[in-house]
């Protein structure tokens, strides 16, 4: 019997590794690695060192070059480090080749994200979705994934599996995948019925990169208690609440955050959770404007929305964490007029890009929330009138 193990253990010490491609700057890669370290922290590991290497193409056998790998090995040896995390997806043979040299557990970014999702999954649906994505990820990598799987009842040591064992494992994993697919189909049927019961309400969905403040805004607007914290992927399950602003009701959903290089299988198996996004009428795209890479993050979210076929919807861009942004951008020597001018320019440029559909807020300090409410309400009412022109009032 094969069981998926939790990949990262608590307080485990890790080294992280990233490749620098031709078109990337060193700074960009450092920021990507900041994100990888934050992911590792979310999973419970502590990053003690990071390595980068400039390469035109990843090495087929070991992803990074032999020299760099040796450098990592020397650093690890004699230290209490048990995990090396790569920022890009590795093949099964790359994992096994690298593990042979480093003699510690080797994982990649996708594996780490899947591990976090597995920990965070609460509902039956989320659990099955993550498990499905994990086994799909494992299937082509069985050779290298020895350390990820636990053989229950089999007294086989840490020696890698032989060919026949891999074949058997492959069959077991394939069976698991089809079983999980069936279970997911059943759960999906139930949630489809639930969604159909929502009648003629306009549906609004909060979307955005992970950790931008979606759940905080959800709580603020709906007075509900959705789990929000400074960790990646705090929210995995969609929460939907009925919200009423000045007698204008609509349904507001908080959804799972997106991230750069979200494992493909994860997007696939989270399709039903993300149906909430696909079927919504209006998107609230939340952006953490205090993040140095916020424009990149907007791009990642737009690409993911395209992938989900949920891109062409009326969208309001919510630029959140203005308090932090101002703290980072302005110093005390700057004249107030200059600050106002800079803020005005920022707003104007985004207003232009979003055709007037941007709101700048601080959810934490509750700044500009009235304008946000008003903007959402106008969109909801407009849409409702378009959809139900025979109804004179949108009151319940
Ligand atoms: N400074 C500041 N922090 C904020 C603001 N809004 C949210 N935060 C913080 O940002 C962190 C993430 O907030 P969440 O609401 O959990 O973000 P999320 O987008 O739901 O994140 P995931 O569910 O993990 O994708 C929390 O620590 C919040 O307190 C804000 O306006 N200013
Ligand atoms: Mg959240």
From TrEMBL:
Q: What is its main location?
A: cytoplasm
Recite the UniProt keywords alphabetically. Answer: Cytoplasm, GTP-binding, Magnesium, Metal-binding, Nucleotide-binding
Q: Where in the cell?
A: Cytoplasm
Q: Which residues are involved in binding Mg(2+)?
A: 215, 235
**Hflx-type G domain: residues covered:** 202-384
Q: Name one GO molecular function term.
A: GTPase activity
Iron-sulfur as a keyword of this entry, yes or no, is no
- Transmembrane residues, as ranges? none
Q: Does the keyword Disulfide bond apply?
A: no
Q: Summarize where GTP binds, as residue positions.
A: 208-215, 233-237, 254-257, 320-323, 362-364
InterPro entries in the record = G_HFLX_dom, GTP-bd, GTP-bd_M, GTPase_HflX, GTPase_HflX_N, GTPase_HflX_N_sf, P-loop_NTPase, Small_GTP-bd
User: Which CDD domains does this entry report, sorted A to Z?
Assistant: HflX
Against Pfam families, the record matches this protein to: GTP-bdg_M (PF16360), GTP-bdg_N (PF13167), MMR_HSR1 (PF01926)
Q: Name one GO cellular component term.
A: cytoplasm
The UniProt family comment states: Belongs to the TRAFAC class OBG-HflX-like GTPase superfamily. HflX GTPase family.
Functional note:
GTPase that associates with the 50S ribosomal subunit and may have a role during protein synthesis or ribosome biogenesis.
HAMAP family given in the database record: GTPase_HflX
The protein's assembly and partners? Monomer. Associates with the 50S ribosomal subunit.
Q: What is this protein called?
A: GTPase HflX
What is the gene name? hflX
């Amino acid at each position: 019997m094969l069981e998926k193990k939790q990949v990262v253990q608590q307080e485990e010490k890790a080294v992280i590794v990233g490749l620098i491609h031709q078109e990337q700057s060193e700074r960009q890669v450092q920021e990507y690695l900041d994100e990888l370290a934050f992911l590792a922290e979310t999973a419970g590991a502590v990053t003690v060192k990071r390595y980068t290497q400039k390469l035109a193409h990843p090495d087929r056998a070991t992803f990074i070059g032999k020299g760099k790998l040796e450098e990592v090995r020397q650093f690890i040896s004699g230290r209490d480090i048990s995990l090396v995390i790569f920022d890009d997806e590795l093949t099964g043979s790359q994992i096994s080749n690298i593990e042979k040299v480093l003699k510690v557990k080797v994982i990649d970014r996708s594996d780490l994200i899947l591990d976090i999702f597995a920990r965070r999954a609460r509902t039956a649906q989320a659990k099955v979705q993550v498990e499905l994505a994990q086994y799909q990820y494992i299937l082509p990598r069985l050779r290298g994934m020895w350390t990820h799987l636990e053989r229950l009842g089999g007294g086989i040591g840490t020696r890698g599996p032989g060919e026949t064992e891999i074949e058997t494992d492959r069959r077991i994993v394939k069976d698991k995948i089809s079983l999980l697919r069936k279970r997911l189909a059943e759960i999906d049927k139930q949630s489809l019925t639930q969604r159909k019961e929502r009648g003629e309400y306009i549906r609004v969905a909060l979307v955005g990169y992970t950790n931008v403040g979606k759940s905080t805004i959800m709580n603020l607007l709906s007075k509900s208690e959705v789990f929000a914290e400074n960790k990646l992927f705090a929210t995995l399950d969609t929460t939907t609440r009925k919200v009423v602003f000045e007698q204008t009701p609509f349904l507001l959903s908080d959804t799972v955050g997106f991230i750069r290089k979200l494992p493909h299988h994860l997007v696939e198996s989270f399709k039903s959770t993300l149906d909430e996004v696909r079927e919504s009428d209006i998107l609230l795209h939340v952006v953490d404007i205090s993040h140095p890479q916020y424009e990149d993050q907007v791009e990642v979210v737009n690409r993911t929305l395209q992938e989900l076929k949920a891109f062409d919807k009326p969208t309001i861009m919510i630029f959140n964490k203005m308090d932090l942004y101002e703290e980072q951008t302005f110093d005390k020597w700057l004249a107030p007029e200059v600050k106002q001018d800079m803020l005005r320019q920022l707003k104007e440029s985004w207003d232009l890009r979003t055709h007037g559909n941007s709101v700048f807020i601080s959810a934490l300090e509750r700044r500009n929330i009235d304008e946000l409410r008003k903007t959402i309400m106008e969109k909801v009412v407009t849409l409702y009138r378009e959809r139900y022109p025979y109804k004179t009032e949108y009151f319940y």
